[in-house]
Amino acid sequence: MKDGQVEKQRILFVSGTEGDTRRYRCFHHQEQLALQNVPADFRESADPQLLVDVLDYDLFVLHRVPYSPLIGVVIDLAHLRGKPVIFETDDLVFAPELHEQIGYVDTLSPEDARRFRQNLERQAETFQHCDCVLTTTEFLAEEATRRGKPAYVHRNAPSDEMIRISEQAFANRQRQTRKADENRPLVVAYFSGTGSHNRDFGVIAEPLTWMLETYSQVWLHISGHLELGPEFAPFHSRIKRAPYVDWRELPYLIARTDVNLAPLELDNPFCRAKSENKFVEAALVGVPTIASRIDAYEFIIESGGNGFLASTVGEWKDALQTLLDDSTERWRLGAAARRTVYAQYTPEQQAPHLAKTLQEIAERYSAPAASSESVLWELADGMQKYAAWMEGQAQSQEAKLASLRQVLDRYEARLVLREEVIECEREIVRRKNEVIAKKDEV
Question: Model-level pTM?
């Protein structure tokens, strides 16, 4: 290995999900590897192009990919060629038995919850077929190891574009907030993202109602899909709601606040697995964070130094009081948090570690390749099986469409019948009115 580069390795990221997790764990990784001159490409997990790619790449990173016949062929062929396959995740998705502890499940219908559980089970199956795990926190790495997979940690980090946007938002914050009237309302914010964070918000419901009762000049900002309990009703005039926003808009929104909140359930393994993203995103624009005392936040936050950690109602109240009473302390902690991120989390600082980690994985899990004939025969057999599966899927979909057409036909027939009934009722009324009219004439 030279200068931390993955020598002669072509890396393919394959993702089975969308959203911020893909951005952080695939696209940001690609950016970091590019800084090390390491070629890395990207594919969707359902893309048949993978059957070609499996012959061209040297390291396969499967980001939260559910198992499927296609993925099974890719993993088998990669291993036949002696190439390592990595399961990549920033969440505890390889433990489907714990699915009821995921707050997101609370937002789903019973049928959607069943599908979600099946998706977790298929991700756990992919996990079992991979050589090792690349993840975001020590807690997740330990959980993977307990389930028999060696694990490596590479923390979530912002992209260069995120940093540039955040610098603009920070500059706006510096100009506007420093000049603002000291009597202006202070804004304490929780950026929830989705309704899956309702349980997490419950951790700080009591401290926040205390805050709103105690500090009449404080506003509470809530972003994303979050349900507020009735205890917040008396303060509705000081609660600002905002929809979930694109990540490019988020820095400007955070920069307009004074305190960032990052609560998580302390006794929930899915919450313990979370990364420190909320701290990093707020720190980039100089906003201090109060976070639950979980593994990832303990890794990055020195309580009282560059933020606050809290595990009890009293600690949440104390941290809020400190930051709301003292503007100098808010600016000091925000500036310290920003220095922390610039010292540890930029792409330039993260890139050598990622390249070194992937090089270590490549060296440890590469194996002698089977003969070219064996690989081609396996590919032909895999493609045949995959084609048969796809045909079965198409037939299944056609059967579902046929069933749907029958339902629509029956519905249309009922509509026609209903129209006929209505017309008959109208005719009866018309004739009844004629009879009444004739009686009136007599």
Answer: 0.85
